[in-house]
Amino acid sequence: MSTPAFPDHTLGSAPAAARRTMEAVTKKQGHLPAAVARLATSPELLDGFLKIGAIFESSTLDPLSREVLIMTMATRNHCHVCVAMHTAKLTALGADPELIAALREPEARTLPDERQEAVRQFTLSVLATAGAVDEATLQAFLAHGYTPRNALEVVLGIGAYTMSTLGNRMTGAPLDPHMAAFA
């Protein structure tokens, strides 16, 4: 029987460079998520995502706008693990169920909140233009109370969640059982 390319690593089987990160995630979350166990195959990717994700979480974008960006990336890149995890996070934030439902659709309908739709559209425009958004697109984003700093933070979020969504898909990361209610 062959060994899968992306096994569910434990602290004992993971590359040594991934173990400290895995221990920290386990301590913080109370368990080792399957996605982390598989991403541990590359300690650099695992550590890079978690560090950049934490930096994104500390950005000046408000928590709901960050989650809109993350869900936009998750549905765009078809990452079922991220969709479930961030549905749970949106629920914990008290987000409107209609917003959550719209964000979960692969071809999301217009979001019920104009400000959140602005961040979703800006994220999609940054992706579609490889960052070369035109002035009208930037001004439409800024008109909803966002700042030039927020525009660059969108790039940061795209970077972090490109790593996560593509890594999770490549490894075939399964959904942890406690996330099934948010799948």
List the helices and strands and how they pair.
Blueprint: H1 16-29, H2 34-39, H3 43-57, H4 63-76, H5 80-92, H6 97-104, H7 114-128, H8 135-142, H9 148-171
Helix pairs in contact: 1-3, 3-9, 4-5, 4-7, 4-9, 7-8, 7-9
Kindly describe this structure:
The protein has 183 residues and is mostly helical. Helix content is 64%, strand content 0%. The protein has nine helices and no strands.
Offer a concise description of the structure:
Helix content is about 65%, strand content about 0%.
Radius of gyration: 17 Å
Q: What amount of the residues lies in strands?
A: under 5%
| Number of helices, where a helix is a run of at least 4 consecutive DSSP H or I residues | 9
Overall shape: it is globular
- Give the strand tally: 0
Note the main sheet.
Answer: none
Sheet/helix structural class: mainly alpha
User: Which runs of at least 5 residues are low in confidence (pLDDT < 50)?
Assistant: none
- Report the helical percentage: 55-70%
Distance between termini?
Answer: 31 Å
Summarize model confidence as the mean pLDDT. 95
Helices and strands, in order, run as: HHHHHHHHH
Keywords summarizing the entry:
183 residues; mainly alpha; 9 helices; 64% helix; 0% strand; globular
